[in-house]
Design a protein that fits this description.
The protein has 128 residues and is an all-alpha fold. It has helices at residues 4-41, 45-56, 64-86, 88-110, 115-127. It is 85% helix and 0% strand. The chain has five helices and no strands.
Length: 128
């Protein structure tokens, strides 16, 4: 029984990534098949482009401030876990994650990714 645990651990490390790749492949395959069927029935190219945009979906820019805030509070939680029960190792890891979260938040303010924020930053710079 003890020999079975490492073997299952190794197999899990191989099976899980392979299953994710297979799942993504079949998901994309279904999208391609749907697109081919739709393109056979539509002659208007503008309508086809509109459907393509809906299938691909508009990707929203990543809000670094939101991700940084989440990372910051995860770090605080790990730090508090280290204080309460698990010791100085988790305190250090918590502080590291807090620092990463603060850095992401600062980067979100320095490098805005929303076009309105970029326009606002440019206008403020030009006023100076």
């Amino acid at each position: 029984m003890r020999e079975l645990i490492p073997i299952l651990g190794i197999l899990a490390g191989i099976i899980i990534p392979l299953s994710v790749f297979v799942w993504i492949y079949f998901d994309e395959k279904n999208k391609r098949a749907t697109l081919i069927e739709i393109s056979k029935n539509i002659s208007d190219t503008a309508e086809l482009k509109k459907i393509l945009q809906q299938l691909n979906g508009k990707k929203q820019p990543v809000d670094s401030r939101k991700g940084g805030t989440i990372t910051l509070f995860v770090g605080i939680g790990i730090f508090l876990l280290g204080i309460v029960s698990l010791g100085s190792f988790f305190k250090g890891i918590g502080l590291l994650i807090i620092a990463i979260g603060v850095g992401i938040i600062i980067a979100g303010y320095i490098y805005p990714n929303d076009s309105s924020l970029i326009s606002k930053a440019i206008e403020e710079f030009e006023e100076k």
